[in-house]
Amino acid sequence: MKFLRFSCLLILVLFAGCVGVDQRLTHLPESQRTLFLGNFGNVTFESDLQIELTEALRNYIHLRKGYILVNEVEKARFLLYGEVILYRREGFLFDNEMNPTRYDLNIVAKLRLIERETGAMVTVFDEDARTQFSVSEGMSEDEVMARHRLYGKLCRKIYDRISMAFPLEKENE
Question: pTM to 2 decimals?
Answer without folding.
Answer: 0.82
